[in-house]
Design goal:
Blueprint: E1 4-6, E2 32-43, E3 53-58, E4 65-69, E5 74-81, E6 90-92, E7 116-121, E8 127-132, H1 137-142, E9 147-152, E10 161-170, H2 184-187, E11 196-199, E12 202-204, E13 211-215, E14 219-226, E15 233-238, E16 242-247, E17 250-256, E18 260-262, E19 267-273, E20 281-286, E21 293-301, E22 330-337, H3 353-359, E23 365-367, E24 385-387, E25 392-399, E26 405-409, E27 414-419, E28 428-430, E29 432-435, E30 440-446, E31 451-457, H4 460-464, E32 468-473
Parallel strand pairs: 1-13, 2-5, 4-9, 10-14, 13-21, 22-25, 24-32
Antiparallel strand pairs: 2-3, 5-7, 6-8, 8-9, 10-11, 11-12, 14-19, 15-18, 15-20, 16-17, 16-19, 20-21, 22-23, 25-30, 26-29, 26-31, 27-28, 27-30, 31-32
Bound molecules: CU-O-CU linkage and copper (II) ion.
InterPro entries: Cu-oxidase-like_N, Cu-oxidase_C, Cu-oxidase_fam, Cu_oxidase_CS, Cu_oxidase_Cu_BS, Cupredoxin, TAT_signal
Keywords: Capsid protein, Cell cycle, Cell division, Metal-binding, Oxidoreductase, Virion
Pfam family, one: Cu-oxidase_2
Amino acid sequence: APLTRRALLTGALAVGGLAAVGARPAVGERAVTTRLVAGQVARRLTPEQPQASRLRLYNGTVLPVLRLKKGQPVEITLENRLPDEHTTVHWHGLRIAHAMDGVPYITQPPVEPGESFTYRFAPPDAGTFFFHPHCNTVEQLGRGLAGVLVVEGDEARPFDADLVLAYKDWDLAPDGTLGPFLTLKGAANAGTFGSLTTVNGEVVTKERQPVFEVPAGADLRLRFLNLDNTRLLGLGLHGAEAWLVASDGQPLPPLELKNWRMGPAMRADLALRTPDRPGAVVEVLNQRAAKPKVLARLVTTGQPRRRAPFEPTHLTGPFLPEPQIEGAPVVPMVFSTAPGPSAPPPELAGLPFADALCLNPRTLWAINRQTWPQEGHAHPPAPLATLQRGRTYVLELNNISKHFHPIHLHGHSFKVFWSSDDAELPVHWADTTLVAPGERRRVAFVADNPGDWMFHCHIIEHQETGMMGLVRVA
Ligand code: C2O
Ligand code: CU
């Protein structure tokens, strides 16, 4: 029988281990506290696999959903119960203080096994975000350490239902082992693709996709997250008209959804009216390839909730400082292969990366011809740029490589306002933007959050092989 999940009604939340949050705090009151336990769990991802996979999860749940409220102070204690490695939590897209950003050595000491660390912040923006470690990310994220973060408080008119769909592939071998996560061949190209696709941890195949019940004739908010290490998606819907109402958590004027390109770490909030007829199906599609793939089916139930025709409304916000683009300094950021030969010698292609690295230590990718030292976060390079606090900057993201790069800046959201390839690119806010091979993209923001912020590709194998740097706001 197909798996059925009832769409979470707004406010009615039940998520493994995280329900404590949102117990009933009003904004401005005492901090809400909750725990995130990072641990190793043996679990089968498919019924067919002969033995369980070694997953790494928060609170024993695949992609748990944490719901917070805009402006509500929280204290989230990370407990590291991983047997063998340190970790941290990075709150991707949240414009919070540097000390809470979760980058080992740069913003905090790494949290060793058996230790804990408490993150304290009040989410400044409502929207759809996520969290993940910033240590050995390719494997920790690859084994499942990530969660969805929904910050409530941006709806001028409430939706009837709110559904989170989080996409992730797993690098699953037939015997149930996961990995290798990082291969020289993958890292030097578009990345190592997983073999098993899931949405909210439910397996997606050509024959069968997860099914979610949604109310008929109702206003649905669909929060779609690409939480894969590698895969690029083209988000589309079949069976209903949908509007993009937020990108990376930040509202934008409703834009009819056709095919929204989503690299790893990117999020899209959609607003739509579900069909009136109970039992109708809306398909959520990956239209990246010529032949679209169905990722999930939304099936309507009950009597239609709404009579008036649907009108996509603007979410409240964004509440971001408006960049003064005219006359702002333009900082070039060039994304390329590392200086020197970059193609792996044929005898090393396909080897697990760690092995290949022993034989042939090097980095593969660079920003402004600078690569992050291979020894990891503990050895930060000089900043790529030093920005004056409070000023507007334009970053010109110039991809001179043969592969796509979803580029992410910590601690800020930026306005994507120009592309050399796409004159029709809608102006929108983002914290991660996908730059195509040969494309130049301009993004602008007010550098208002002091600190040394990570700036990197979110194809994790690219990040871990050099395409990572620091932007200093001082
Ligand atoms: Cu989600 Cu430094 O990234
Ligand atoms: Cu990349």
